[in-house]
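Assemble and predict.
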Amino acid sequence: MQQIIYFFQKFKYFLFFIFLEIIALAFTFNNLNFQKSKFINSANSITGGIYSTISNTSEYFNLKEQNALLAEENNRLKNLLQKQNSIVNTADSIVIDSLKYYQKYIYTVAKINKNEYSKAFNFLLINKGSNQGIGKEMAVINSKGIIGITENTSSGYTRVQSILNRNSKINARLKNNFYFGTLQWDGKDYNTVQLHDIPRQAPLKIGDTIETGGKSTIFPEGIPIGTISKINQRNTVDNKVDITLFNDMSNLGYVYVIKSLDKTEIRTLQATENE
Amino acid sequence: MNKTLNNGLLFVFLLLLQVFVLNNIKFSGFINPYLYIAFVFLYPLKENRFAFLFLSFLLGLCIDFFSDSGGIHAFSTLCIAYLRLFFVKIYFRKLPADYPFFNLRSEAFGKVFNYVVTLTVIHHLIYFSFINFSFQNITMVLLNTLYSSIFTLILFFSGTYIFTKSQ
């Protein structure tokens, strides 16, 4: 007993140091785990509130760019509407039954309060939370392309796992055919992401457009991602393609959060299939 | 009492400076100074060591809360806080009896420079290795450590220069 007390006396600072380091490590590992990250994140009311005050003031500096972005998107949507009209007008026997209309996705507008892109595991903070119906694993996009997946919600704020996060894996495919692969990031350049495991027989050209594949339950089909910038010529196992993003991830303003209404249905179906 | 208040103010000031100003610099995309570790250099040696270790841990954890990095800042700050005494012994050749009178400002610049550079590089190396969390981009880790350390050191020394002049 005397020995033990003496031991604690001698190494009390070291033991305290080790104890605190273990706590810090536990926080670190929990944060890297997508399912478990609960404790240390900026989606709580204190840090979220402070970040929202700051972004409210700094928002004025890039109003011009945001306006241009909105006008561009309006233009695209109006063109789409015109196309739709012309199809409806030329084929006179189309019946639109409003009872059969079935909504698959709900869109919510949110503002980015905190953006980061320089680390290997990047997270964003948006100003909508569970009070506005936002939950885990919903898609986050803007008018130019994909941004990330929601991860952690408090009542008023949500943390988003950016596509510039080494844990992020998103199903993506070529726009002109249906070959698909997995979108990942190697942590180097924030303008370039990598498409892995695309079949070798897929006809790839530099400049081809990549979009979301719709094979995951999170992202709707056909959201633009970027264009191919470099093709790996050697025949490696992991057929890797570099993709330049449409989005400038260092300059983001308003985003849309997409809630998929079919998600639980698809998930239960897949769960029974596995048994 | 005055001393405690001083340390508390230093804590809050460094936290706010780091989170709201320095974390947004991102010089050429990724280089950030981490000046908050000045708390470890400036906290007096004679104070209770438990309190000092805990405060360094807390400062790191507060910065983690804002920058979504788990417990990485807490880990690296606590590490240099623990190693501080060891380097004080090596560089300044002090005995435990000298600790109450130890003051960074009254020491020779060369010794202070060595001391601060060593602790800064250790902190940044641990921080960037954990942030990267793999052996893939090891050159990036080393480059980040080098550039950010230079940035932090310039800010620290210019800061101490300015504040000692004004007194």
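DSSP finds six helices and no strands in chain B.
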